[in-house]
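Hey, resending since the last one bounced:
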Amino acid sequence: MSRFLNYDLLSSGVVVPVRISMFPPQRLLGELPYDLKYSVRALQPERHMVGERPRFSTGMWTKLDTIGVEKIANQLAAISRAEGGKRVALLCHEDVTQARGHRCHRVVVSLWWLEQTGQEIPELTNEGEVLPLHRLHRQTAPILPREGL
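The structure tokens again:
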């Protein structure tokens, strides 16, 4: 997981940039210095989810549950295979690594994936640091469906 602004990493060819944002980054950022040819709709929030954090977090979690880990894993594996087995970097706009941290659906996706598979998806910072979920600011934590609205 990372941000569209992680230009050094995403231009390096080490990972395959994959959009999971609701809106294409070019709307806000203009032309990107790397090729962004993949997106995974299953990992993108829906317009009806936008709003208060409880609705957004639980809506995203429910969407992921409905689609299922197998379908999502197959989509990500197909992208990786098409790019010679490279790892994918799931991207959107928010910076979840700041001192305060922004809330972002990437954290919902990461926690859901961890619960479903036992595999953690770390956050890759602009500085090249790999941050496990427990190192992200607590403000980024989503509200999970089982916690209620």
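Residues 62 and 124 are 25 Å apart (CA to CA).

Sorry for the duplicate.
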